[in-house]
Amino acid sequence: MNTLTQQHKQDLHQLLQAFGLSGHTPLSNWIAGSARAGDGAAITLTDPVTGEALLDYNDAGAALVSQAVAGAQKGQAEWMKLSASERGRRMLQALSGLQGREEDLAKLESLVAGKPIRDCRAEVAKVREMFEYYAGWCDKQHGLVIPVPTSHLNYVHRVPYGVVGQITPWNAPMFTCAWQLAPAIAAGNAVVLKPSELTPFTSIVIAACLEKAGLPEGLINIVNGLGPTTGSALTGHQEIAKLVFVGSPGSGRLIAQAGAQRLVPTVLELGGKSANIIFEDACLDEAVAGAQAAIFGAAGQSCVAGSRLLVQESLLEAVCERLAKACPRIQVGLPSSPETQMGPLQNGRQHQHVSRMIRDAVNDGATIVTGGGLPQGLPTEAQSGYFVAPTVLRNVTPSMEIAQEEVFGPVVVVMPFTDEQHAISLANSTRFGLAGAVWTQNVARGHRVARQLRVGTVWVNSYKSISVMSPFGGFGESGYGRSSGTEGLQEYTLPQSIWVETAEKASIAMGYGSGD
Ligand code: NAD
After folding, report:
1. Which end of the chain is more exposed for a tag (fewer CB within 10 A), N or C?
2. How many CB atoms lie within 10 A of CB 504?
3. What pLDDT is recorded for position 513?
């Protein structure tokens, strides 16, 4: 075992201890207010920096999922005994549980997910922001009074589903966890959340810290394990009233099928193949910097990654030249270093997938502008890790796999377009529809093009800005339903219409006699 792995094992052990999660085997579940170990098969976590084994924990399995759901039912009943304002106050109060633990939480995420520490610190701050935002909504979810044409008072109010099942991926575990937890509980639900088996711990820490500081026991439950075992026990559980899934389109189909089987609704937040469009009237310095931020942030393991760079023909050479110079300057290195801008990919399977896609693209005729292999300057001990250099490919045609399929790694294809209509049709030519961007100094063009992109989020002269206040979600195979904003909140309630007869004699209004 190399010394970096040894160090990381030690750091992980200390962090789990600090968060009360170390036991005979790691306590990898948070169920009805207690940390519990799983008792299913062992799951091995691998160090993204070295590719060596880091830690084993046990799959939760169906029995623990059932206990989590039972705990959630009790937690939800307690939660709904509180007034809406009190629920909002408790959500804010719960944040005190994270106070002073932010740095450890960021380190834990960085260690297991392989993400640069500076990104993890920013994501901890986002967790706070999400709870603060939705805490404010607890007592502002007003109903409606409908002026029905009868003598009834008809009003509509919103009812929580009860217990919601959430499933999240490995690329931004604590961000995605808070992104879904906060609106779900603000709307009055309890949650059983299954993080990716590859990044099990930060979601538990968030749940445990928040519950201990003010939320009812059982309101948030975290179960860890594989999709086909723990995941399908959750999606198939008869008391789960709604499923919210963030992950790949392939698994999304399975979740939607599981929901359809029991006739429960699903929200799917899936992958993307987002187009980042640079027009010849763009500010080139900004656009080239934006193109790098769009794809190389999180080593491209971002659902909104700008993985297709569409460039107006006249700028193609200039953009490729600039990227060829800029990309080797990106700081690729150890996630624990504060200077690191890009770390490794999170896991070996993803590393193989990304490497295979680059190889096949080149075999299909693409040319490498920069990158394509291991980055320069890595410490020897990290050379067996899951690093891929920032990679730019050109001579890619729209029908090639690399232009159509999600890479989910630091790989961007540069493709030329002739005019506005050509750019729009290229941008809309994949089955995905998550995000996109337009770089232009012509404000009318910015708006015009943005509105013709069939995607859930468009940036103009920017990339990747995201806020809990604004709705997020996909078109096409990027999924359906929305997270965040008021739309995200609405996903967690059902409207209930109540009719109260105000006529003196309801029997007359209904047209039947009383039988007396
Ligand atoms: P994945 O689909 O392999 O796994 C996601 C989650 O689903 C994991 O927790 C996994 O254990 C679980 N799962 C898998 N099979 C299951 C089953 N049969 N039943 C229940 N659960 C099951 O995805 P991933 O590789 O972890 O994440 C990468 C993908 O996530 C990419 O496609 C990325 O674009 C997408 N993503 C989307 C968003 C978004 O908001 N749209 C955000 C982040 C990531």
Report:
1. C
2. 8
3. 82
User: What is the side-by-side strand order in the sheet with 152-160?
Assistant: 144-146, 152-160, 493-501
Q: Is 232 in the pocket of ligand 1 (CB under 6 A)?
A: yes
- Output the CA angle 195-166-488, nearest 5 degrees: 125
Residue whose CA lies nearest to ligand 1 atom number 42: 303
Confidence of residue 514 (pLDDT cuts 50, 70, 90): confident
- CA dihedral for 385, 334, 28, 164, sign (positive or negative): negative
For the chain, what percent of residues have pLDDT higher than 90? Answer: 97
Do the Cβ atoms of 245 and 266 come closer than 8 Å? Answer: yes
Other beta carbons within 10 angstroms of residue 389's beta carbon come to 23
Distances (CA, A) of 354 to 44, 128, 323, 406, 435: 22, 33, 20, 9, 21
* Residue 466 CB less than 6 A away from ligand 1: no
Q: How far is the CA of 45 from the centre of ligand 1 (A)?
A: 17
Q: Which residues are catalytic?
A: 269, 303
* Ligand 1 atom showing the smallest separation from residue 249 Cα: 32
Q: Say whether 295 sits in a helix, a strand or coil.
A: helix
CA 260 to each of CA 200, 243, 263: distance values in angstroms, whole numbers, following the listed order: 27, 10, 5
Chain mean pLDDT for the chain: 97
Q: pLDDT confidence of 364, banded at 50, 70, 90?
A: very high
Ligand 1 centroid to Cα of residue 506, in Å, is 53
| Alpha-carbon gap, residue 5 to 338, rounded angstroms | 19
Q: What's the average model confidence in pLDDT over 392-396?
A: 98
pLDDT at 412: 98
Rounded-to-integer distance, Cα 187 and Cα 310, Å:
40
Judged by DSSP in three states, 510 sits in helix
Ligand 1 centroid distance, CA of 477 (Å):
14
Give distance in angstroms: CA of 244 to centre of ligand 1: 11
152 Cβ partners below 8 Å, 6+ apart? 499, 500, 501, 502
Q: Are 312 and 358 within 8 A, CB to CB?
A: no
Cα separation, 190 vs 160, whole angstroms: 9
- Does residue 316 surpass a pLDDT of 90? yes
112 has a pLDDT exceeding 80: yes
Residue 474 Cα: closest atom of ligand 1: 41
pLDDT of residue 508: 77
- Confidence at residue 507, expressed as pLDDT on a 0 to 100 scale: 81
Q: How far apart are CA 406 and CA 413, in angstroms?
A: 12
> What are the beta bridge partners of residue 275?
308, 436
Q: How far apart are CA 359 and CA 369, in angstroms?
A: 14
Q: Cα–Cα distance between 291 and 410 in angstroms, integer?
A: 12
pLDDT at 317 over 90: yes
Task: Kindly tell me the sign of the dihedral angle through the C-alpha atoms of 70, 211, 125, 469.
Answer: positive
The pLDDT of residue 510 is 82
Nearest to 398, CA basis, from 353, 370, 368, 366:
366
Judge contact between 303 and 268, C-beta under 8 A: no
